[in-house]
Amino acid sequence: MPSAGITSPSPTPSQPREPLVIHGTGDVNLDPSYIPNFRTHGYGYAWSGLAGLFQEDDLTVINLECAVSDVGSPAAKEFTFRGDPDALPAARAAGVEVANLGNNHSQDFGVEALVDTRENLAAHDIAPVGAGKRPRGGDPPGGLRDQGMEHRGGRVRRGVADR
After folding, report:
1. Would you kindly state where each structural domain of the chain is located, as residue ranges?
2. pTM of the model
3. What is the pLDDT of residues 20-51, one digit of tens each?
4. What is each CA distance from 83 to 8, 71, 112, in whole angstroms?
């Protein structure tokens, strides 16, 4: 059938995308009684050997293996770790944006300390994930937003409009 002079537009080539750089760490512990160098060198010492690596990426996720709280009582277990909330500004300044709490030390000082940890992290612009108000722990799929990208349900996309 003739097109009656109507032409179909050609697809517009997509813009090349820059690589997305995400760093994930192993266990991070901010307990000064477990890591005495914090008392000697300060909390920035934990990040000093990275030469700004986490500041230059798109997203840094740490596995935070301690409660960062001044409340709660130690659990009845061999090892309990209590991070100092004063350590969080150095973590954020180093480029940490997300802290996973879905591990065996997030409740070392009880639920009250876990909730306080989430609040302390959020107050320092570090998103707490992996342990929360839902009965099975963690946060519902939702989003982490940072530097023009959004994380949802296991994938990261750039340039997603605000919700």
Report:
1. 22-158
2. 0.75
3. 999 999 999 999 999 999 999 999 999 999 99
4. 62, 11, 14
